Amino acid sequence: MSDETSMTSSTFRLSLDIFSYPTALSVLLALLALAGCSNGPPDYFQGYVEGEYLYVSSPLAGNLEGLAVSRGGQVEAGQPLFDLEREHERAAAAEAEQNLRQAENRLADLEKGQRPSEIAALEAKLAQARIAFELAQKEYARRDALLKQNAIAQEQLDRSRTEKERGEAQIRQLAAELETARLGARPDQVAAARAAVAAAQERVAQAKWALAQKQPVAPQDGLVFDTYYVPGEFVPAARPVVSILPPGNVLVRFFVPEEAVAALAPGSKVSVRMDGSDRAYPAAISYISPQAEYTPPVIYSRETRAKLVYLIEARPAAADAPALHPGQPVEVRVE
């Protein structure tokens, strides 16, 4: 037997002797158990902070005259953010208000009828017509008596009858004109005037809306995340000028393997930790993706790389949101 064969045989016997001891066997089993446990799901998941920003813009174009906020500042709902030049909109609003007053005055004039002096003139004419009619009646009666006495010709009585009938017709005409003057304009004219007033009111509302769009306000409380123009620049329509991050729009996105997603549900509690802080921020799961995906490149964990995972979103309390910064990597533990 060669020296090499003798050495191998001795080594094999030594190995058997070592593993024949109960203590050594126990150590080996413990190591195998730990190795098996290392393949189980981790007790934390890696993720990052994300923000859902509100991009504030104007639907109308114009030069940026003023910027009332700066990056990193806090704003309250209703606070002005920036001003665009609005001379054209201001002039259009003033014109619309003038047209509205004109339409309202025309409607009031049609509803009131004619002026008091015009009605008084018609009343005077009606009084004169009645006096003339009374005289014509008396003259007709006198001539009718004279005709019966053969004192006048039939022609004179006929002329008197005509005058009486003309006076009666004039009274009816003036009475109708007076009644019409007191009633005002015709119903269709009044309706048209009312429609003109309503249209003028809508034009005023449109002009005021356009004027307000040149001075947008903050829709919610939040952090001014960024500004994109400086005063003096021309801002095209619908281009964001300011972005705001409300506290309620801060969320944490993390990824869990498919064997762990079944234990999670919207509303489940998690805790969020970040580097450099010992504090754990509570959060609640708000969204679980229904579709599996491969681990995104932004997650650099060896344990989860190249595995199918599910995207989970959790939202912290609004009071804790300022401590979490978009893009910051975090560790998430399920409570």
Account of the 3D structure:
The protein has 335 residues and is of the alpha+beta class. The protein folds into 3 domains: 97 residues, Efflux pump adaptor protein, beta barrel domain (Elongation Factor Tu (Ef-tu), domain 3), CATH 2.40.30; 60 residues, Beta Barrel (OB fold (Dihydrolipoamide Acetyltransferase, E2P)); 117 residues. Helix content is 46%, strand content 21%. It is built from 7 helices and 14 strands. The strands form 3 sheets. It has a 6-stranded antiparallel barrel. A 4-stranded antiparallel beta sheet has the order 2-8-6-4, with no helix packed on it. Strands 5-3-7 form a 3-stranded antiparallel beta sheet, with no helix packed on it. Helix 3 packs antiparallel against helix 6 and helix 4 runs antiparallel to helix 5. The chain starts with a helix and ends with a strand.
Keywords for this entry:
rod-shaped; six-stranded antiparallel beta barrel; 21% strand; four-stranded antiparallel β-sheet; OB fold (Dihydrolipoamide Acetyltransferase, E2P); disordered N terminus; 46% helix
User: Considering DSSP H and I runs of 4 or more, what fraction of the residues is helical?
Assistant: 40-55%
Please report the distance between the alpha carbons of the first and last residues: 65 Å
Major β-sheet profile? 6 strands, antiparallel, barrel
Query: Helix count?
Result: 7
